[in-house]
Write a structure and sequence with these properties.
This protein is α/β, with parallel strands linked by helices. 44% of the residues lie in helices and 11% in strands. It has a 6-stranded parallel beta sheet with strand order 3-2-1-4-5-6, with helices on both faces.
């Protein structure tokens, strides 16, 4: 492995949260009078920070979401996480390999710090991501597809952007990594490869990731 840092997205890459959160987001928006299907939630919001939900609803309807929208939504999501959330199959083996090879890694997520920590505690991934290894769009104020979050994570980890590999499963995340000047690998468990253009490689099983990360040295 010749990258100096591997940056993981969180939702859908480390924890299998996208089906849960998008199901609940679609239901809550529909409940508030903004009919949204699960598929539309995946298309429009997967991989994005919460401000994108507010911005798109306002743009499309001229209406503001309730002031407590984020708190209510996160409360529902966290309760569902406690019942249902699991780590993505195979990701622990990838983390073990990176640790054994002394390759630094971190997480850079559009989700809040609280959301990341709740998910990691439930799935046991908190043992892999201690203080200083967790970065959120909250830290930069501007979520994906802007490159700010990935650039911030690389700066805090002390690694140049062109020495970073990003692992993403959303079109917005791929755009953000590319804009940051980083190689990005698209995880296609939920998102078809054709919707992740610009990725250096694609994979559908976490067991394939380590080989992709080493190909650069060939």
């Amino acid at each position: 492995m010749r990258y100096d840092l591997v940056i993981f997205d969180n939702d859908g890459v480390l924890v299998d949260s996208e089906p849960i959160s998008n199901r609940l987001l679609a239901a809550y928006l529909t409940e508030l009078g903004h009919p949204t299907s699960y598929e539309e939630s995946i298309r429009d919001y997967m991989g994005s920070a919460m401000h994108r939900v507010h911005e798109l609803v306002l743009e499309r309807t001229g209406e503001l979401l309730p002031g407590d929208f984020d708190d209510v939504f996160h409360g529902r999501v966290f309760a569902a996480f406690e019942r249902e959330l699991e780590p993505v199959d195979g990701v622990v083996a990838v983390l073990e390999k990176l640790l054994a090879d002394r390759v630094p890694y971190c997480v850079a997520s559009s989700g809040s710090h609280e959301r990341i920590r709740v998910g990691h505690r439930k799935t046991g991934l908190d043992r892999w991501f201690g203080d200083g290894l967790v970065f959120s769009a909250q830290d930069v104020g501007k979520g994906k597809p802007a490159p700010d979050l990935f650039l911030y994570a690389a700066e805090r980890m002390g690694v140049a952007p062109d020495r970073c590999a990003v692992v993403e499963d959303s079109p917005l995340g791929v755009l953000a990594a590319r804009a940051a000047g980083m190689d990005v690998y698209g995880f296609t468990a939920m998102t078809p490869a054709e919707k992740l253009p610009g990725a250096r490689g694609h994979f559908s099983d976490m067991g394939e990731l380590v080989a992709l990360l080493t190909d650069r040295a060939a």
